Amino acid sequence: MMAIAGAPVTAAILGVAAHVLYFARGEHHLHGLRYVEAFLLSWLSTAALLRRLAETDSGFANPASFSAMLHLCFLCGLLTSCVIYRVLLSPLRRFPGPLDLRISSLSLVFRVRNGDAHKQVQDLHARYGPFVRIGPSAVSVIEPSAIRAVHGADSGFSKGDFYDLLHPAKSLQMMRNKQEHAARRRVWSAAFSDRALRGYEKRAAAYQDKLLARMAESADSGRPMDMRRWIHAFNFDLTSDLALGQPFGNLDSDKNHWVIEVMDAGPKVLGLMLPTWVFRLLSDIPGLNRDWFRWFNFARDSMMARMKTKPEIPDMASALLGVFEGRKPTAEEMALLTGDSQLIIGAGSDTSSSTMTAMLCLLAKHPEVLAKLRDELAPLAVRATPSAISFSSESLASASILNGVINETLRLYPVVPTATYRRAPPQGVEIAGTFIPGGTDVWTPQYAIGRSEEIYQQPNSFRPERWHENPELVKDSRAFAPFLIGPYSCIGKPLALQTIRSTIAKIVCTFDIALAPDDDGLGFEADVKDRWILGVPKLLLTLKRRPGEP
């Protein structure tokens, strides 16, 4: 009985040992379900053993309850050790930040439950300064020099466990191994050559014409148009055509393709910023990931169908499939092709859609900027047909006002507002005189950086001229990296900018745009969400055909 009386203390000590010797070392996010299964098996096994002992010792009135108590003591020991370490002993203990975030990353989930992580993190920096401890092993940094230090080619930083969310499924974006990522990026690079971009420009023109036709219908009816919905439809049709050789047909229908509904739901979950181990544990529950597998199977089947065709104008799949030289991909290669096609559609459509929608909102709120932009674009326009205009990508790339508006939109509404994090190398890194311990997940939140008074004059004002006429409005240009830099930067940047430039140019030269009656545009800013990627709300614009436009 004496041994039994000391069992709870022993269980608690074992919990402390489990934390110190095992859980405080290495990565464990891929094994959450195994740990739960092992814990339950241990509880049941202990209860069974105690039941056998109860047959010879009347001191065991309820073996199952006693086993549960022992395992609860184990958890108490483990969690107590964890809290003490994170608060008092962690290498990050000297970084300022709220106590709850030091203790558990689950606290961040509660804080950002309304989809406002970008504003929450901005507020934390306003309170604590440029370095804020945002989690037990994470620090958020808004120092301008952090961009190069964290994301530069020679930084030594790597991708953290967040990129294992869908493991073992893969795509270029989710590859953590640097050599593997570099090799795959070389394959992707062929998809963004100058020749390839010219082909995409031709493919995009057809979908731009459909978008403009939808806008003309709205202008003729006099009813405001939800630009968020139709810009979204345009980008999904374009990226699905480029990735899979077939558009989703959203511009031809008043109902979204089911894939859009699935993909709209995904970022909402990511916006909760669940710890990777929690996300993966939940994804193991039968039924919760049903829609994702439906989307994965659809993308795989569509890619297999695309492999049997050869488009007249090459698409992005042409570059990805070119490495096989006619041979059939292995199962692993097919899974990677599927993941990459999902990446093209998801990352390419959502991010460009958010930027274009925000850009149209800002132009509608600032008609003086819209007028200057139109004056710049008018001489560059080419009348392709009596009913359509076009622009050369070269002329738009050098249009200072247009690119200033794009940069200012990306500064105010970055496509990834908060979650641009990387893991520090084992030896640690010094950023702006502050040492970051090895293994720390370092965030460089673009929204907070873009709105910092230390980096920009009038940071909350829409001032596109800061990027051409008035560079003094930018105090430190090192901080501006909307597509990031280095080996993990957005490889689709050339295509994104080409599409944004030409689409916005055609819209503003074809239509007068204004906010819907009784809308001052303030609601748009308030309703923007951080769902890992930027989530923009409905944008109702009143459209009128420009004089001389059919």
TrEMBL record:
Cofactor (UniProt): heme
GO biological process: verruculogen biosynthetic process
PANTHER family: CYTOCHROME P450 (PTHR24305), L-ORNITHINE-N5-MONOOXYGENASE (EUROFUNG) (PTHR24305:SF112)
Keywords: Heme, Iron, Membrane, Metal-binding, Monooxygenase, Oxidoreductase, Transmembrane, Transmembrane helix
Name of the protein this chain belongs to: Cytochrome P450
Source organism: Podospora aff. communis PSN243
Signal sequence interval, chain numbering: none
Membrane spanning stretches: 66-88
Residues engaged in binding heme: C490
Entry similarity comment: Belongs to the cytochrome P450 family.
Localization (cell): Membrane
Domain of life of the organism encoding this protein: Eukaryota
GO molecular function, one term: oxidoreductase activity, acting on paired donors, with incorporation or reduction of molecular oxygen
Main location as per UniProt: membrane
One GO CC annotation: membrane
UniProt-listed InterPro entries: Cyt_P450 (IPR001128), Cyt_P450_E_grp-I (IPR002401), Cyt_P450_sf (IPR036396), Cytochrome_P450_monoxygenase (IPR050121)
